[in-house]
Amino acid sequence: MRFLIIMGVVFSFVMPTVALAQDECASAVAIPFVNGTSVTPIDTTAATTSADPIDDAACAGTAIGTCESDIWFTWTPADDGIVTMSTCNDVTFDTDILISQGPCGAQTTVACNGDGPCTGFTSFVDIFPVQAGNDYYIRIGGWDAASVGTGNLTIEFSSLIPVSNLVCTPDQSTGTNEVLMEWTEDVFYDNVNIYLDNTDPASLITTVAGVGAGGNNSFLYSPAADGGHTLIAVGESGGSIAPTTTCSYFFSTPCPATSGATLVPVPSNQPFGGAVSCNAGGLHADNMYYRAYDLCNNYMVTDNNDVKCVTTVFNSNPAAGTTQPVRVRLNIDSNGGAVGPLAAMTMVYEELFQVPVVANELYNFVLGTGVVDPDGTLAGSASTVIGCLDGETLVVEIFTPDGQAAGHSLFMGMPDPAQTTTADQIGASYILAPACGLTNPIDMVGLGFPTNMWIMDIAWDSAGPCT
């Protein structure tokens, strides 16, 4: 991907010169510096080929040729910054571009490109850093002896570059939501401003002093806001603002405090693994994930159970810039024991949630915060209160509707297989996926994936004793 955020765009047109006047490094023609965009006409039709060696180590694999009939320019930035240089789609011949420093005949190539992501084998030298006052030699030639022509060289410069290598690492191990931000400062900044979700002044979290060009810096955001958020790092120097760099994190909204002891069918041993799903190219089809709860015999629940929250683990990657739908259903299985068949199950509650990007982490579905009975199937009878069950089981279902057309991907997580076996879970984990031929719930052990155990903790309130 090729883009550059430019504070102000200025076009500077340099009149064509006679090609032979810039035929060699020693007679390179200076291109005036512009903080923004400059466009310089080029013409290699009367040029000869320089004897200077060709060093393509900085752009290996981009089809640098022999740089025939080459012409030379010099360019000297007035500020530190970043730059792109391009003949992309704007010349009549197959170009090579080499940018170098040092004395003619003994130069070091700092950036180059043969064939960029352009038409006609034209060239695009992607973002590279430059320093104020340094002379950069720009050599433009043809891939072979037949490659000569005319066109334009475009230089795009921005005086401040964004911080690089920005990483956000979320952590809840201390009992507090914390995000460690770490980045590299490739140029000098007075400060780096940290924002939450947008760069409005009201969203400023803190200002971190710069550490100098080439240094590594960090900031611990604590306590971090619940939910999914974007952290933004913006360098500033001398009143100028650099382009933004972002990273994202997610912390699930906590389940509410409840009176009942949380029902935990399997330990949430970390690090979480990734489970299988019915999918095509990583984009999921309809998948239903189930667990059965024998409330009386396995969990010693003797009260009516009002389900408040379901905690699970998954890796969610919705289409860019969107969320994806996930439905939580409560069913009563009249057969008890194993989940299914479907004919024995009655849905008593359904809620639709929109899920953001979640990186295989715990996620809390707080019931009552989504869209209850989204299709009207229950006709107003939806209830989270599960009465005293006699020979029946509560079945919790997490349904991920087909995401292939929309570009959604969701895979359930599972507890660390190195620490967890099927003997550690109460009951079994089930999946139903018609597109993969699974038309009734099937035990993951029977399917050949014994480590795929669904974390589905239930937080509940007592709704009165069973009578």
Structural commentary:
The protein has one helix and 32 strands. The strands form seven sheets. It has a seven-stranded antiparallel beta sheet. The protein folds into three domains: 19-158, Jelly Rolls (Sandwich), CATH 2.60.120.1050; 164-251, Immunoglobulin-like (Sandwich); 273-465. The protein has one helix at residues 295-299; strands at residues 29-31, 37-43, 68-75, 81-86, 95-101, 108-113, 124-130, 136-142, 150-158, 164-171, 178-185, 191-196, 204-209, 215-221, 227-237, 240-241, 245-251, 273-274, 279-280, 283-284, 287-293, 303-317, 324-333, 345-355, 358-366, 371-372, 385-386, 393-400, 409-414, 429-433, 438-443, 457-465. It is an all-beta fold and 467 residues long.
Query: How much of the polypeptide forms β-strand, as a percent range?
Result: over 45%
- Radius of gyration, CA atoms, in whole angstroms: 31 Å
Tally the structural domains.
3
The biggest beta sheet reads: 7 strands, antiparallel
Taking pLDDT < 50 over at least 5 consecutive residues as the criterion, the unreliable ranges are: 1-19
Looking at the structure, what is the overall shape? elongated
How far is the N terminus from the C terminus?
A: 66 Å
Question: Which properties best describe this structure?
Answer:
467 residues; mainly beta; Jelly Rolls; Immunoglobulin-like; 3 domains; seven-stranded antiparallel β-sheet; six-stranded antiparallel β-sheet; 1 helix; 1% helix; disordered N terminus
Task: Show the helix and strand layout.
Blueprint: E1 29-31, E2 37-43, E3 68-75, E4 81-86, E5 95-101, E6 108-113, E7 124-130, E8 136-142, E9 150-158, E10 164-171, E11 178-185, E12 191-196, E13 204-209, E14 215-221, E15 227-237, E16 240-241, E17 245-251, E18 273-274, E19 279-280, E20 283-284, E21 287-293, H1 295-299, E22 303-317, E23 324-333, E24 345-355, E25 358-366, E26 371-372, E27 385-386, E28 393-400, E29 409-414, E30 429-433, E31 438-443, E32 457-465
Parallel strand pairs: 1-3
Antiparallel strand pairs: 2-9, 3-8, 4-7, 4-9, 5-6, 5-8, 10-11, 11-14, 12-13, 12-15, 15-16, 15-17, 18-29, 19-20, 21-28, 21-30, 22-25, 22-27, 22-29, 22-32, 23-24, 23-28, 24-26, 30-31
